[in-house]
Amino acid sequence: MSITGTLIIQIIVFLLLVAFTMKYVWPPIAKALDERAQKVADGLAAADKAKSELAAANQRVEAELAASRSEYTQRLADAERRGQQIIEEAKARANDEGAKIIAAAKAEADQQAVQAREALRDEVAKLAVRGAEQILRKEVNPSVHADLLNRLKTEL
Predict the structure, then answer these.
(1) What is the per-residue pLDDT for 143?
(2) What pTM, to 2 d.p., does this model score?
(3) How far is 69 from 66, CA to CA, in rounded Å?
(4) Is 144 helix (H, G, I), strand (E, B) or coil?
């Protein structure tokens, strides 16, 4: 065989191999590559979508956190104001109660002072009667001289 014949046969076998590969081997490989490319594209699109959804979710979370912080601050301020108000009310009630107690104590002290004065007057009147009795060396009857004793009490 000559080199030309071998070359021609090799070209024919090569062309048959190319035709067979193009007809039976290449389409499944191309299909697999296309499917893989589609999966990669779908994955990238899903990743982009997830990324945008994550950014939106982060924005919502930040907005909720800001609202929560604002509400927390507002409630804390309200609680502090309410606590201060309760303290002021308690102080006012305590002052009122203290004033009532002081007034009652003053009234009781005044009443006791009046009672002590009356008791002192009675005692002084009795002492005056005894003194007068000793001076006069005779007994003075308190029931007979009640008017005189009452006048003496009022003068004292």
Answers:
(1) 67
(2) 0.43
(3) 5
(4) coil
